[in-house]
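In response to reviewer comment 3 from the previous cycle, which asked for concrete evidence that the modeling workflow produces usable outputs, we include below a single protein chain processed end to end. The sequence was submitted unchanged, and the resulting structure tokens are shown without manual editing.
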Amino acid sequence: MDLIQALVLALVQGLTEWLPVSSSGHLAIAQRLMGLTVPVAFDVMLHMGTLVAVIAFLWKDLLAILKSVLWLDTKSENFRLFSLVAVGTVPLAVIGFIFMKFFESLFASMAAIAAGLFATGALLLVSRVRHGDKAVSWKRALIIGAMQAASIAPGISRSGSTISIALITGVNKVDAFRFSFLLSIPAILGASAAKFSEIALADLGLYATVGMAVAAVSGYLAIKVVSKLILSGKFHLFAFYCFTAGIAVLLLLR
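The workflow returned the following structure tokens.
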């Protein structure tokens, strides 16, 4: 892997982590097209870059949540939101621990990636006609969390699936967006912690530093795009991209 290839992968990661098109699927596709086998540690570093992006975008919410936790303000809305995120993280922790090997095996299958893209597209379309004005409840937090767990599979977008299922279960657009992105933070932190030893042993040097920076900047821009698309009611339009990408994968990369 040279620097240009590292930059391409970082840009792909930054944009597709938050756009509803699956970063894992697109990274696998990009690596296949470039004939690369990228160290897991490099992928994790790119994810850390997108984590920086979401923290930068939601820093006010995160600060308010942190204050409510430190002061044990259990009656506040921010503490409730912290609790909902914790509940929503449980399905990922359980399913990821039990089925991680299975999910990892799917990354070698272009057919599996295409299927994931089709599933993401279907969810996006359904979210167009099924949404409401409710807040995230404990039950909805578990359902959204279960969908995040499913997004471990390549081709299933984390943001696309969690925002879509939130809208489908009646959550209002603002809360669906915010909860989905808050839920991604412990998920990325947990995945990074699980691979910490590989990061520590890897000699990535400049590639990792530049890659993280590119992923962070492009990721921040992607989050702003997603925010505007949800509020304008155009989030579902990415379904057609997912369907097209899925067909292209089946036809060209089998």
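Residues 77-106 form the longest helix (30 residues). We consider this sufficient to address the reviewer's concern, and the full set will be provided in the supplementary archive.
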